[in-house]
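fwd from M.: "can u put these together and see what the complex looks like"

so here's what she sent:
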Amino acid sequence: MASPPASTRTGPGRLLVAVYALFALSATARAVVQIATEFSHAPVAYVLSAFAAAFYIVATVTLAVGNPAARRIAVLSCSVELAGVLAVGTWSLADKATFPDATVWSGYGSGYGFVPLVLPVFGLLWLRRWRRRA
Amino acid sequence: MSSVNDAVPTTIIVAGLVLAGYALLMTALNRRMGGYLLVALGVLEVLLLVLVGIIVAKLVGGGRPSSLPTLIGYLIAMPLVPLVAGFWGALERSRWGPAVIAVAGLVAAVLMVRLHEIWAVIGV
């Protein structure tokens, strides 16, 4: 049986898509529960959580689809995601009052083993390998 | 009876970590998905289903966690994690298939810790 042609969702991409899917689901679920049940407690933090969840969903779908258009979107998404982790991470450390609860990107993702920090880096490195391919 | 209930989350943590360790070893040794990994994943799935049953029984008995929506999310996620990971990992013909299974093992262990955080009666 011939193996399927390589794409961003095979090889190491298999692991990347799996971790992105995991974060997409858990960040979305967490944001939905937070916004639905206690939004006034930390509105900025929870909106940022929802924002992060959106980027995880985009990364999961574009890496899984894998065609050139999807890859371009993925590069953009992972870049903004990385900027987001760094920005929100710094903000959450500097302004603890706005972040009474941990969110995905608080403390550079320290509540999630710093995976949110390294994930977009690996995403961008993986996508870099596909730069010249059709 | 409560000591049996406490044993299940702890067993899942151990099983999840052992599964993750074994799967990562397969990845490091450049081996693809094999029967042993799937069997180990199946064992984890059974353990998770048992825990879902225990938690549902506690809920029916009137207990409530600090966040019911979160708990329900976990109850839905727990049996799905090994199934989805098994399917996705099995599609992969290289060492990265077992890597996906390792994630499932780690997720199972982390879920046990999170469960205990939202409902201390689920002992670890």
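replying to her w this: The interface with chain A takes residues 67, 69-70, 73, 77, 85, 88-89, 91-94, 96-97, 99-100, 103, 107 of chain B (CB under 8 Å).
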